[in-house]
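Mods, move this if it's the wrong board.
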Amino acid sequence: MFDIGFSELLVIAVVALVVLGPERLPKAARFAGLWVRRARNQWDSVKQELERELHADEIKRQFRDVQSSVQDTEAQLRASGEAVRREAEMMRQDVARHGDAVAAAASDEPVMTGPAPGSPASVAQHVVAPDAADAQTPPRDAMAPPGIDGTSPRATPAPVPPDPVRLPHTDDAAAEPPSPGNEAPR
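Not the wrong board. Structure tokens:
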């Protein structure tokens, strides 16, 4: 604290011994020590108070910085939200202006909804039933592109009924169709 060396302290002690005497010197030393301790405690409390104030100021400055960054972020979010709202409004106006023309053009074409093409549910869903007036037309797959004649290439052909012509048979064994192992030579 003060720049006092050992030799200076020795001179002060000798002068105090001569001036105060041996009876009052211990009492004076206790009194001086008390005042030095009080001064040090006072200095430490002032120092701690200053450190607390500086720390509080630093915390307040950090809080202001965070608060300003939050306000900046909020302003940016509001600006982007407003831009999205304007864009959505412009899209609504475009749809309102051009939507009727698009809807009229699109109404002529079928709109596909439902399961993915090629899935079993899709195939079952897209089989077109024959017209009531044309009972001989087999059901066809609506997802298949039309062939040259307008029918679907995936359409199953109508089963051809067998001819009712029977060959005369005399024996039941001869009337059996040949099995794969008993085929007739060609």
